[in-house]
Amino acid sequence: MRVLGLSSGTSTDGIDVAAGQFALDGDLVRLRPLGHRTVPYSAPLREELRSALPPGSTTVETVCRIDTGIGQEFAGAAREAAADLAGGRAELIASHGQTLFHWVEGSSVHGTLQLGQPAWIAEATGLPVVSDLRTADVAAGGQGAPLAAVLDTLLLTGRGGSAAALNIGGIANATVVPSTGVPTAFDTGPGNALMDAAVRRVTEGRTDLDLDGRIAAAGRVDPDLLARLLADPYYGLAPPKSTGLELFGAPYLDAVLDAHTAAHGPVEAPDLLATLVELTARTVADALEPFAVTEVHVSGGGARNPVLSARLAELLHPARSVPAEDLGLDGDAKEAYLFALLGFLTWHGLPGALPSCTGARRATAAGRITPGSGPLRLPEPATIVPRHLEVVGPDW
């Protein structure tokens, strides 16, 4: 079955699209990657979206406009990918949409909202669409995140030791698959989110991250500022746990910097970025330390920051820090392939979340289905829950 996966992360850079050919073989899922791309949001939609993200206030009218706009732009990206990447043979689309709000209080998630009306995608492509991929897990008492644990666990199981997958987007999340026992997953805290906010602050609104680490490399870690940042209660919560821009956004950074400036004076831009890099690296390493992992597979935008990557490797030692590509998937497309996988599992009646990773009472199928142009005909539900995923080459 050829499936398209669509997503956009907390950095709101654009729409990640991946096409994959999937097959079930007992407890094995085979995935043949067919290609991926990133389609930027239009400038007006990106600006409207970023203005509505926490802590921005918004209106129901704006929510409707954004929901429609994201749906339409996802639809355009899906229509082109169905032809170009899937060779006109796609059968299903899975769309994560764009998270607007993740309602967290302490260690509990009460709701989550992803925008991008799937009817636009179904209308543009004629294909059924699986969307709203997090809410079923939240309704079952889970965090609704990190959903990457499903793909990570299938990829890492059976590697002979305790392994972890780490994705550094706006928020960093990790999945730990021990050599024995059940997997665990959690958001470690800010990935690029605070660095992004800091770059915008010191460059008067530029939206690009310090991905090459030049600003951070020129600075030194401010120990007082780092201690203030590390004192946040989130880091003391036990997994499973999740977070987002609702906590670790620009106002959070502003408040911390105001308090630091009052006590110690202002911090220079290079020192601020160096300290935020250290925060991300330190909180990731601290979160993984109890699990004694032997290898960490790293993906996401933060993996392209050499200063962050080098510091992570130091703090994670003796565990090996290796790129996600070692598992057979391009790190930039991993989340889009994840959502394609979730859509494929839902289509076959299989769960799309792991209770040990999200804290849910039971494993739920992910999402709801919007029919395409034809009658909706689901296959007979699969009877074996997959335990492994194999990435195969073009000859398969």
Automatic annotation (TrEMBL):
Residues that bind ATP: 9-16
Keywords, comma-separated and alphabetical: ATP-binding, Carbohydrate metabolism, Kinase, Nucleotide-binding, Transferase
Pfam families given in the database record: AnmK
Catalysed reactions listed for this entry: 1,6-anhydro-N-acetyl-beta-muramate + ATP + H2O = N-acetyl-D-muramate 6-phosphate + ADP + H(+)
Top-rank lineage group of the source organism: Bacteria
EC number(s) recorded for this UniProt protein: 2.7.1.170
InterPro entries membership: Anhydro_N_Ac-Mur_kinase (IPR005338), ATPase_NBD (IPR043129)
One BP term from GO: 1,6-anhydro-N-acetyl-beta-muramic acid catabolic process
GO MF assignments: ATP binding; kinase activity; phosphotransferase activity, alcohol group as acceptor
Pathway: Amino-sugar metabolism; 1,6-anhydro-N-acetylmuramate degradation; Cell wall biogenesis; peptidoglycan recycling
Recorded family membership: Belongs to the anhydro-N-acetylmuramic acid kinase family.
Free-text function comment from the UniProt entry: Catalyzes the specific phosphorylation of 1,6-anhydro-N-acetylmuramic acid (anhMurNAc) with the simultaneous cleavage of the 1,6-anhydro ring, generating MurNAc-6-P. Is required for the utilization of anhMurNAc either imported from the medium or derived from its own cell wall murein, and thus plays a role in cell wall recycling.
Annotated NCBIfam families: PRK09585.2-6
Protein name: Anhydro-N-acetylmuramic acid kinase
Species in which this protein is naturally found: Nocardiopsis kunsanensis
